[in-house]
Amino acid sequence: MKPYTNHTSTAALMERSNVDTDQIIPKQFLKKVERSGFGVHLFHDWRFNADGSDNADFELNKDAFKDARILVAGDNFGCGSSREHAPWAIEDYGFNTIISTSYADIFYNNCFKNGILPIVVTRQELDQLMQEIRDNEGVKFSIDLSAKTITTAAGTVVKFDIDEFRKQNLLSGLDDIGMTLKHVDKIDSFEARQQQTHPWLWK
Amino acid sequence: MNKTMYEKIWDDHLVHESEGQAPILYIDRHLLHEVTSPQAFEGLRNANRPVRRTAANLATLDHCVPTTDRDQPIKDPIARIQVETMMKNCSDNGMRLYDMDSPNNGIIHIVVPEHGFVHPGMTVVCGDSHTATHGAFGALAFGIGTSEVEHVLSSQTLRQKKSKTMRVNVEGELSEFCTAKDIALSIIGHIGTAGGTGYVIEYTGDAIKKLSMEGRMTLCNLAIESGARAGLVAPDEKTFEFLKGREFAPQGDDWDKAVAYWKSIVTDEGAEYDTEVTMHADDIAPQVTWGTSPEQVIGVDKKVPDPKQFSDEDKQKSCASALNYMGLQANTDITDIAIDYVFIGSCTNGRIEDLRAAAKVAAGTTVADGVTAIVVPGSYRVKKQAEEEGLNQIFLDAGWQWREPGCSMCLAMNGDELKPGERCASTSNRNFEGRQGKGGRTHLVSPAMAAAAAAAGKFVDIRKL
Ligand code: SF4
After folding, report:
1. Which pLDDT value is given to residue B246?
2. What is the tens place of the pLDDT at every residue in B210-264?
C-alpha cells in the first residue's frame, strides 16, 4: 500500500446519499479474480449510456471534475455489499480521499486497507464544502492528514477526527498482516488456551 | 461488572491489545465464497504466507452458479474462471469446499447453519455482509473485505475496533401473517439504513424469543441493512435443539460442556447498552419496500409516500429519485402496484420454513398472466427436503419454476436477472438500483407476500385473503 501524503486536489461533488457499493462497482465486474483494473468500471451504470458512451448527466463526467482525487458525497456512503472491489475501483479511478457525514462500516474499514482516507465531517461542514464546489466547480481542497485538516481554496478550514492507529497506518502504508503476525506468539498462546477451555471448537 | 453478550464474546476472543493499535480479535470460523476470496489467496501466495488453520474454514460456490442446467459447464467464461479459481484455491490449501456437484452445496449462509458449523459464542467472519445471519445463534458474525479475508486466512485473527451496543426490543405478539422479515424491515424503516452504523444490535423481547431459528436467521441477516456490524439473538433451548446432532456440533461429553458455556454468554441482568429501541410486534403489518433502499418500506395497507411528506430535504430528494427509478407515482396504493416477476430465495428467505410459507399461499393458485415466478431453494438440502414434502409440486402446479440452489436473483450475477423496467416481488434483502438487473425494480417482501403477489399479479394484503 502506498503511504498517504498530504495533497491539494480537485474535489468532485456527488450530491447523493446512501451511495451503495452495488452502484460503485456493479456486480457484472465482480467476476474478475485480480485486484486491479476496476477503475474503468467505477459507477458504471450511472457513468455510461447503454451504448457505452459517457453519460453527460453524471456528475463525475463533468470536465471540471476530471482530475479529482477528492470525492465529496452525501450521508451513509458505501452502504450495502462488503465488496472490496468498491474501494479498489475508487482508488484505481484516482480518488484517495472521500468526504461525507457517514460511511457504512465495512466500506469504511476497507478504505484504510487501500490507502483511501474516508473523512467524516458534520452535516454543516459538508453543506459548506458542497456549496464551495457548487459555486466554483473544479475548486481544489488541501488535505493534511497529520494535522487532520481540510483547507479549501476559499480559506475554510475543517478539522476532522480519525483513530490514531488508522492515521498512522495510512501515513506509513504499512501492511496490516505483517504487523499482526509480529504477535504470532500471542495467537499461539490464545489457541493453546482455547483448546483447554473450549475443546469442542477444536474437533 | 454486568456485561452484554457482545462484550462477553469480545472479551473471550481478545488476543492482544496495545496502545495506538486496533485490538487483535481471534476468529473461530471463517466462511468463503468465490467472489470475495480470489484476491485474498493471491495475496497469500505473493507474500508466501500459509493458511493458518484450514479446519476453521468452510467454503461454497453460490454467487455465480447457474440455477438451471447444472450438469452443463458454466456458460459465462469469466464466472467459470472464478469458480475454477475457488476450487483450485481450496484444494491447494486443503480447505473444505462444497462445490457445485456436492449435495451440501448452497448459499454460504444457508449451508453453514445446516451443518452446525457455527455455535453460540463464536466469532465468525466472511467476505460477505450477510454474515450477520449467524448472529441468530448468538455468535458474533460479521462481514469483512477481501484484505481482511487475507488477514484471517493468514493469522486467524482480525484487527477490530470495538462496536457500541444497541438493544432492539420487540415486545408483543406478531400477527400470524407477519414474519421475521416484516419485523426486520420495519426495524430498518424505523431506525434507517444507517441507524445501526457503529453498533452491534442485540434483538430481545417476546416477539424475538418466539421466532424459530429460521426466523432469527432472517432477522439477523438483515441487521446489516440497518448499518449494524452484526445482529445477535441470545441462544436458548431452540438454539441448542437446532444444533444438536448436526455434523459440526459438539459431540459426546463436549455437548454438555458447550451448552453450559453457551448459557453463560447471554447478557447479564442489568447490563447496559449504549442505545435502546423498543418496538411493538402487534403494530407490524406485512411490509413492502417502495424505493431503492431497504429503509424505504411501508405496510402493505398504505400508499407510496409523497416526497413532500418528508421534513428532511435529503429524504425528500431520495424519495423523489427512488420514485423516479421505481416508476411509481406518489400516493398509489401499495396493493395497486402490478409486478412482472417473483423471486423466492436468497440467504434471507431461502430456507425450508420460507418455502413452506410460500407454498401454503401458492397452493391451488395460478401464477398471474405475464408474471414469471421462480423458487430458488437456498441449498440442496433445502431443495431435497422441500421435494420430500411435495412443495416443489405445489409450486410447479401453480406455474412456478423450481430451480437449483444459489444466490440467483438476489444479486443477479449468474444470469438470472430482471430486464430494464421489470418489477419484482422479491424475498431477498436489497432493493438497490440495478441489484436484480440493470433498470430492474425490486420490492422486498416476505415469502408469503411474494407468493400472494405471484397469483394476483400485484401486491395483496395477505391478511385479507
Ligand atoms: S443470497 Fe444474496 S445476500 Fe445472500 S450471500 Fe447470496 S448474494 Fe449475498
Report:
1. 98
2. 999 999 999 999 999 999 999 999 999 999 999 999 999 999 999 999 999 999 9
- Say yes or no to pLDDT of A146 above 90: yes
Q: State the angle between helix axes of A105-112 and B146-155 in degrees (0 to 180), rounded to the nearest 10.
A: 70
Cross-chain CB nearest to A187 (options B15, B43, B161): B15
User: Are the C-beta atoms of residues A31 and B83 closer than 8 Å to each other?
Assistant: no
CA of A3 to the centre of ligand 1 (A): 34
Q: Which of residues 288-327 of B touch A (CB under 8 A)?
A: 293, 314, 317-318, 321
User: Strand B199-204 vs strand B164-171: parallel, antiparallel, or unpaired?
Assistant: parallel
CATH of domain A7-172: 3.20.19.10
What pLDDT sits at residue B314? 85
Any idea what the Cα angle at residue A179 is, between residues A177 and A180, rounded to 5°? 65
Using the Cβ of B250 and the Cβ atoms of chain A, whether some distance falls under 8 Å is answered with yes
Percent of chain B with pLDDT over 70: 100
Quick check: A175 pLDDT over 90? Answer: no
Average pLDDT over residues A81-89: 95
C-alpha separations of A115 from A65, A110, B58, B366 in Å:
21, 9, 30, 54
Surface-to-core class of residue B202, CB atoms within 10 Å of its CB (0-12 exposed, 13-18 middle, 19+ buried) = buried
Please state, in angstroms and rounded to a whole number, the distance separating the CA atoms of residues B434 and B292: 9
- List the 147-166 stretch of B: residues with Cβ below 8 A of A: 147-148, 150-151, 154-157, 159, 161
> Mutate which of A41, A90, A100, A106 to test chain B, going by most B C-beta atoms within 10 A?
A106
Q: What is the pLDDT of residue B420?
A: 97
Rounded average pLDDT over A185-200: 98
Could you tell me the CA-to-CA distances from B143 to B19, B36, B109, B153, B448 in Å, in that order? 26, 11, 11, 14, 28
Q: Of B4, B12, B13, whose CA–CA distance to B204 is shortest?
A: B4
Domain extent listing, chain A: 7-172, 175-203
Mean pLDDT, rounded, of chain B: 97
Residue B265 clears pLDDT 90, i.e. is over it: yes
Cell triple for A130:
458542497
B257 SS3 class: helix
Cβ of residue B33 closer than 8 Å to a chain A Cβ? no
pTM, two decimals, is: 0.95
Residues of B in contact with A110 (CB under 8 A): 145, 147-148
Q: Whose CA is nearest to atom 6 of ligand 1?
A: B407
CA distance B191 to B228: 11
Q: What is the pLDDT of residue B312?
A: 87
Q: Is the dihedral of CA B60, B65, B70, B72 positive or negative?
A: negative
Q: Does the distance separating the beta carbons of A102 and B147 come in below 8 Å? A: no
Rounded Cα distance between B190 and B79, Å, is: 38
Question: DSSP letters along B419-448, please?
Answer: PTT-EEEE-SS---TTTTSTT-EEEE--HH
pLDDT 10s digits, B432-446? 999 999 999 999 999
